[in-house]
Amino acid sequence: MKYAIVGAGAIGLFYGSKLVQSGAEVHFLFHTDYNHVKTNGLQIESVLGNFSLNNVNAYSDAKQMPKCDVVLVCLKTTQNHLLPQLLAPIVNQNSTIVLIQNGLNQEQIVAQHFATQNIVGAMAFICSNKIGAGHIRHLDYGKLTLGIFRGQTNDMQQLSSDLQNAGIETEITPDLNKARWKKLVWNIPFNGLCVALNTTTDQLMQNTYTHTLVYDLMCETIAAANACGCNIKPDFADKMMHNTDQMKPYLPSMRLDFDNHRQMEIQAIYAEPINTSFQVGFDMKKTKMLMQQLQFIQASYMQ
Amino acid sequence: MKYAIVGAGAIGLFYGSKLVQSGAEVHFLFHTDYNHVKTNGLQIESVLGNFSLNNVNAYSDAKQMPKCDVVLVCLKTTQNHLLPQLLAPIVNQNSTIVLIQNGLNQEQIVAQHFATQNIVGAMAFICSNKIGAGHIRHLDYGKLTLGIFRGQTNDMQQLSSDLQNAGIETEITPDLNKARWKKLVWNIPFNGLCVALNTTTDQLMQNTYTHTLVYDLMCETIAAANACGCNIKPDFADKMMHNTDQMKPYLPSMRLDFDNHRQMEIQAIYAEPINTSFQVGFDMKKTKMLMQQLQFIQASYMQ
After folding, report:
1. How many angstroms separate the CA atoms of A265 and A191, rounded?
2. Which terminal Cβ of chain B has fewer Cβ within 10 Å, N or C?
3. Residue B197 and residue A296: Cβ atoms within 8 Å?
4. H/E/C letters for each residue in chain A?
5. Measured on CA atoms in the order B148, B151, B153, B159, is the torsion positive or negative?
6. Is B183 a catalytic residue?
7. Under a CB-based contact definition with an 8 Å cutoff, are residues A217 and A269 in contact?
């Protein structure tokens, strides 16, 4: 089994280095950090134990990489327009492309460009931040949920097994679409409100007004998901509220993007769910309002 | 005719000094600016012409003031809990209390404390800022719309006539409730969004996403008003959008309150319309979301 990691940030470096720990052959595609990693390797600070990796299979150009059985795409969805060019040299006809990404409908977009490959969607339930070149800090959680979008792939089971051997919890879901919507139930309120109100998850939970607003947005997301045929139970919102109460104060990925004046994943996390549910007659009114605010905020710092 | 001005800020000083210009007897109640005004008088910079007033009838204590025929209440609604105490020494049984304030339902609250007096609601369509002690800058507009809440008052006509003599446009509306809701159609989107997104009216109009959001909030407010029996035509939102396009960039009063870490008029402008329409079965979903955000923001700078 040959693995490729495309997008070596907080998520890609975590799962990639864990696969190396389990004995797998892993090829990492780097952008700005290539020279640093070639010289200094990777540093992983993790609640599961710190470690570092030297002699990493690091590349600065996808065309130098070998064909891989499984390609883990860990880029932000805002970079998905690059995937046709980045993935073409790495995949063969039977490769499995795994999108470890937020939001909705990204598998469809990749599927249009890669007609024969297996396509898997994956959701990382993890608190992990990149704190320097080739250096990440894994704060909490780590579970990876996988689901087939297209194809019949044994390689997904192998990936799951290899991660489990490295101490990572994995789950294979029979309903990728439902799992993606369930992740949105958390991502839609917390990513957007942490940017719009320039705050953190714990502050939103402590204020009685935003506590209600978070819950309202969760319920709206569940209603939209169910209009799209997902059959998520209403008490899932209560579970997510309870889980968030147990979490340490956390800056969601969109807040980090905002703080660093990077493009936010507004399309994948907001526009796609809003448009998909609108097509079946459901109007995500509050989610749409949050998206409009995020677009205004992003326009204030990006061209 | 004796006039009293309670709340000598940007609005109270403008209309009060215009009444003085028209020859009326006006008594001003000041809070922090009393000593300054007693010594230096009032400075009015206005698009209608600059002027200053010396020998102002200024008071620091309502109990020193004479009984007045017409009391113009120009406090922020956040100070309305002070009105029973402030107005009692100034009014007689036949006085007319005029609330020049934003929002909804404030006349009801005052009516509970003043059982026999005439009560008038008024809306100032004016861009006027206080720029120093006893010193205001009137940038644009100035029209005052008046409507009876309780009683039969000739003094309201006299007030209207005196203001007109001073060059101020006035209008007497037969439907105060409808007029209050029509003002909310502008106040609900612009006051709140200028705080939540830390911006100005022109920026909200220029961005395509917030342009749509402003319009959505206007339409929601019109629908709520009509659920309360107001019969506002849907194209009123289009008129308000057009009017705002013609305006100079403007900081609404709530944005000034936010900038100066003062309490915002969330109760009068948001909670009252939301609760009033909810009682007749209309859910102002987006307006409620904006209110929740404003409450979170206010809690971040006030105890």
Report:
1. 9
2. C
3. yes
4. CEEEEECCCHHHHHHHHHHHHCCCEEEEECCCCHHHHHHHCEEEEECCCCEEECCCEEECCHHHCCCEEEEEECCCHHHHHHHHHHHCCCEEEEEEEEEECCCCCHHHHHHHHCCCCEEEEEEEEEEEEEEECCEEEEEEEEEEEEEEEECCCCHHHHHHHHHHHCCCCEEECCCHHHHHHHHHHHHHHHHHHHHHCCCCHHHHHHCHHHHHHHHHHHHHHHHHHHHCCCCCCCCHHHHHHHHHHHCCCCCCHHHHHHHCCCCCCHHHHHHHHHHHHHHCCCCCHHHHHHHHHHHHHHHHHCC
5. negative
6. yes
7. no
CB atoms A296 and B216 under 8 Å: no
Interface test with chain B among A205, A284, A293, by most B beta carbons within 10 Å: A293
Distances (CA, A) of A267 to A77, A102, A270, A275, B18: 8, 10, 6, 10, 53
pLDDT in tens, B48-96: 999 999 999 999 999 999 999 999 999 999 999 999 999 999 999 999 9
Q: Indicate the residue of B209, B292, B293 with minimum beta-carbon distance to A296.
A: B209
Residues A287, A188: contact at Cβ < 8 Å? yes
Q: For residues A65 and A90, is the Cβ–Cβ distance under 8 A?
A: yes
Complex prediction ipTM = 0.91
Give me the count of residues in chain B: 303
pLDDT, averaged per 10 consecutive residues of chain A (303 residues), comes to 95 97 96 95 96 96 98 97 97 97 96 97 92 94 96 93 96 97 97 98 97 98 98 97 89 93 97 98 98 98 86
Cβ within 8 Å, pair B212-A292? yes
Return the pLDDT at A152: 86
CA distances B72 to A208, B20, B78, B118, B144, Å, are 36, 13, 16, 12, 12
The chain B residue lying nearest A290, using CA atoms, is B289
Pairing of strands A51-53, B118-132: unpaired
DSSP B145-181: EEEEEES--HHHHHHHHHHHHTT--EEE-S-HHHHHH
> What type of residue is A237?
A
Question: Which of B188, B195, B198, B293 to substitute to test the interface with A, most A CBs within 10 Å?
Answer: B293
Residues of B in contact with A266 (CB under 8 A): none
Residues of B in contact with A216 (CB under 8 A): 289
Chain B residues in contact with A209 by the CB 8 A cut-off are 291-293, 295-296, 299
Average pLDDT, chain B: 96
Neighbours of B3 (CB within 10 A): 24
Q: In angstroms, rounded to a whole number, what is the distance separating the alpha carbons of residues B157 and B172?
A: 8
Distance CA A11, CA A127 (A): 9
